[in-house]
Amino acid sequence: MPEKFTNVTSITEFLLMRFPDDKVLQRLCAMLFFLIYLAALIGNLLIITLTTIDQHLQSPMYFFLKNLSFIDICYISVTVPKSIIKSLINIHSISFLGCASQVFFVIFLAGTEIFLLLVMSYDRYAAICQPLHYETIMNRYACVQMVIISWFSGCVYGSLHVAGKFTAHFCGTIIVHQLFCDIPSLLMVSCSRNNILEYILIIVSCCFAFLCFISMVVSYVYIFTTVLRIPYAKSRFKIFSTCLPHLTVVTLFLFSGFIAYLLSYSLLPPSLNPVIYSLRNRDMKVALNNIFGGKMIPNFILQYFK
């Protein structure tokens, strides 16, 4: 197959970057990715199960957390399993449609997660700064609406990027220097003059992500101001502890976004979000203990939750 093409219709597939050529290293990398994927899958499925069946975990915070866990499962499943399988069977090509689909779902899910993290920061603001009106502000209808808007916005965001990228012409090689299809790698193999729409979308996306980040910062400024007015240190710590997991996840998400293209995958959020939100959460510990009847969980795990 020739390496250079004049337009997008000539391309039927792309060649993805492979794992190390050494067979032993290939298997080690595949095993590591599989273990990380399995841990992320189990952790997020556990959160979804607990927040669905336990009646004490039906507050808006856990409703949003359940959606976040589902997003993380989908997000990590879009790229990791396919890359592991292709590495083991030594096939590194991906069809044009498969590449476009991968780009859409990655951006769609990442965009949805940004919107959902913004909603979760608003939930913490309403709970701490407007406690008397919290149930009215964050009623079930409002929560469902916010989640639907997050998913819809992510879908539109992904669709615009796919339209902007895959209607352009590809003038470079078909080799994508990444383990999966992503916008930065595809920009390197396309004609720069045809990427105007995509560059505009990237600039708009960065501006919107920055506005979301500023909104979260403003929310937490109000939250910290309110918490610091509480006279009792124990109460301040208890309230602050409900915000710490969200702050950590937001920081992790933004940090991993910057390093994702350097380390090939953004595996950190889907893998660590269950740990951040669950290990130190007393309600999650009680729910987990109830499921297993307090008999099947090792004592050292229960001690870690305390």
TrEMBL record:
Transmembrane domains' residue ranges: 24-50, 100-120, 141-160, 199-224, 244-265
Compartment(s) where it occurs, according to its Swiss-Prot or TrEMBL record: Cell membrane
GO CC terms in record: plasma membrane
G-protein coupled receptors family 1 profile domain location: 43-264
A molecular function GO annotation: olfactory receptor activity
Signal peptide segment: none
UniProt keyword annotation of Cell membrane present: yes
Pfam families named among the record's database cross-references: 7tm_1
Membrane topology: Multi-pass membrane protein
InterPro entries membership: GPCR_Rhodpsn (IPR000276), GPCR_Rhodpsn_7TM (IPR017452), Olfact_rcpt (IPR000725), Olfactory_GPCR (IPR050516)
Entry keyword set: Cell membrane, G-protein coupled receptor, Membrane, Olfaction, Receptor, Sensory transduction, Transducer, Transmembrane, Transmembrane helix
Purpose: Odorant receptor.
Family that this chain belongs to: Belongs to the G-protein coupled receptor 1 family.
Protein name (Swiss-Prot/TrEMBL): Olfactory receptor
The organism of origin for this protein: Sciurus vulgaris
